[in-house]
Amino acid sequence: MLARFPASVLALGLVSSLGCNQGGQGGQAAAPTDAAEQTEADSAQAEAAVLLLAQAALELEAAVVAEALVAEEAALEAERQASEREPDVIYVPTPEPVVDRMLELAAVREDDVVYDLGCGDGRIVIAAAERYGVKAWGFDIDPVRVSEARENAKAAGVEHLVTIEQQDIFTLDLSPASVITLYLLPELNVRLIPQLEQLKPGSRIVSHDFDMEGVTPRVHETLNLGARDSHEIFLWHTPLNPVPEPAPEPTPQPEWPAPQPPPELEAAPPP
Ligand SMILES: C[S@@+](CC[C@H](N)C(=O)[O-])C[C@H]1O[C@@H](n2cnc3c(N)ncnc32)[C@H](O)[C@@H]1O
CA torsion, points 42, 46, 52, 56, in degrees to nearest 10? Predict the structure, then answer.
């Protein structure tokens, strides 16, 4: 209940209630006794304690406000930097049956946090929120996609679960996520490896159509949606499993020297 009031309001409440108490005491005729002096000393001590508390509350609120301003500033700066960059890959949406299978393979649970890196119209994060009730973040560098995804999340009634941000995915801290979805390009997946290594153990990464060279997928399956419409899906778990190094070539053994012809015998000198 107290949490609903800013710290400064609580602090002012404390100070004013102290004032009221004092007024109450002041209203009574003070008897000039030791007990009355003691009461006055107690009350002065209580006043000092409350003032200290009020000051601490004000300082705490100032720190919280400063932190929020720094976070807002950082978000605006990330957005400004993102708007100066061209997308690394064009927008192509993942078909809905593929979205469903990607989320199934990632075994999304209610306590997961899903990130779609390059979220396009937001369909993956919206589906995750609708079907699994999870919190989901979509990031895209293209402002048109960002507005489209925000509108779609609102229309689907999941704005309370879905957040869309205009950011360059290569600058993101991925550590809050437990499920990552990708529909990028093979070389972009590889570029993301250092960031994907920040994920908590047991996190899942699913990619539509593209593998991640150097890391062994746990699952690779093909989904056929029509005669000429097939989609690859790759799943990895963290910690990422490097592709095993090929066995080293056997070191060549030193060869025995080729047998030499016996030295030609010289004729012994005549006795
Ligand atoms: C192939 S689409 C995938 C859209 C969506 N994830 C889906 O599967 O339907 C790739 C998206 O990545 C976005 N993108 C490309 N480079 C990016 C970057 N560096 N940071 C953030 N988004 C990027 C594009 O704008 C595009 O919307």
Answer: 150
